Amino acid sequence: DIQMTQSPSSLSASVGDRVTITCRASQGISNYLAWYQQKPGKVPKLLIYAASTLQSGVPSRFSGSGSGTDFTLTISSLQPEDVATYYCQKYNSAPFTFGPGTKVDIK
Amino acid sequence: QVQLVQSGAEVKKPGASVKVSCKASGYTFTSYGISWVRQAPGQGLEWMGWISAYNGNTNYAQKLQGRVTMTTDTSTSTAYMELRSLRSDDTAVYYCARDIVLMVFDPWGQGTLVTVSS
């Protein structure tokens, strides 16, 4: 099975900072990569799919890029409401594995 | 608006079964599949399986094969997930989620906590 890793596992940044999270697949998955945001005690929410397509209603400060094995999620200007754990997920083939998550908080 | 509403929390003994429901509204139920994802306390997300609401086809995670069954009732726009032979490590919040395209999930239900304890 393809394994998904994320780095860093956690980060602390200031409001307004540019934040980048990396997701890596152990084998190529083309652009079959989604990103989800899970705020503390809340339900996961889809942010991005097809590596770079922003889901409707998601603020434009979120963006995604990458293809093959290496992907990034970028928050261009971190806001207090972005405190959450972010998960990548591959969906090229079963099992549709999630990464271990990256916890983002405010410094 | 599209909404998935799940059944309430459950407490089960080891070896028992649990059946969680997920009632959909705000869209044509048979036009999308439903996946189930679980999250153990303080842990990440684990995909459990998928069911087509159109024809009932299923695709289960290999580690749960033989213990999980997913079904739908199109007359009530409800999906169900049954997990048998429960163990303590099945304690988790169980989510249903609509599959909008090739296993991309949006939205998610509110979650159902299943606690397995003797």
Automatic annotation (TrEMBL), chain A:
Keywords, ordered alphabetically: Adaptive immunity, Cell membrane, Immunity, Immunoglobulin, Immunoglobulin domain, Membrane, Secreted
InterPro entries according to UniProt: Ig-like_dom, Ig-like_dom_sf, Ig-like_fold, Ig_sub, Ig_V-set, IgV_Light_Chain
Limits of the Ig-like domain: 2-89
Pfam families in the record: V-set (PF07686)
Gene Ontology, cellular component aspect: extracellular region; immunoglobulin complex; plasma membrane
Chief place where the protein resides: membrane
Compartments where located: Cell membrane; Secreted
Single GO biological process annotation from the record: adaptive immune response
UniProt protein name: IG c499_light_IGKV1-27_IGKJ3
Species per Swiss-Prot/TrEMBL record: Homo sapiens
